[in-house]
């Protein structure tokens, strides 16, 4: 996390941290699982060699970019603890490594994150559309969508049509437009391919904010899902919530498609984008939660 400076953490910082992490800990492997609309590689990190295969992701939403350094801090602390045969939030790190294969996609939406942090780049081919979608404003810190104005967490084929009608958005914008059809965006396609290929036992999508854990989807979730969410809540102080009136999200699709535990965790509390000065406070609760997620299926 050496590159988390100047109060922001964008795609450049992510790539630099991934390179540094893999050099320091060769047992952490990096993969490109797809590319964003603007051609940025979407990176996945793999750590662990166990039979439990699980997944975490962050920065579905551009202005929730703080979820990326939260995940990067976690995987770095786990790798460091493994290297010295140490402890990760009370758990033997090497034991977790032997039991679990974790795949992290720390930044699902790299184009959107860069837009939210730095505004429109001079060579952005969507420059005029973005200004129009943002009502003429060059301030994009509240932007949630990808660079084509599509909300990536409303893109998945889990009652997508109902979500589209509920959102009531007819076209691209800063938030809540589910796209012209499910999986229209390359970022959502990449995560879907990864999930279908690796058949995860459980997934966790990290968002902000609210300090809540969503664990259900239309009664498709497995019987133990609520108990597992309670475990995550006990170690973090976050509140497990049975959610209704929401469709087409990544964890919704995962639960419906695989009938396995899926979670959306809303990190921190306040107004997005959360202040970088709260990072350490947020991580003090997220670290134990993510560690518990590694050991959920023992």
UniProtKB/TrEMBL annotation:
The keyword Protease applies. Residues 7-297 form the Peptidase M14 domain. The active site is at residue 266. GO terms for biological process: proteolysis. Keywords: Hydrolase, Metalloprotease, Protease, Zinc. One of its GO terms (molecular function) is metallocarboxypeptidase activity. SMART domains: Zn_pept. InterPro entries: ENP1_M14_CPD, Peptidase_M14. SUPFAM superfamilies: Zn-dependent exopeptidases. Its cofactor is Zn(2+). PROSITE patterns: PEPTIDASE_M14. It comes from the Bacteria. One of its GO terms (cellular component) is extracellular space. Belongs to the peptidase M14 family. This is G-D-glutamyl-meso-diaminopimelate peptidase. It comes from Paenibacillus catalpae.
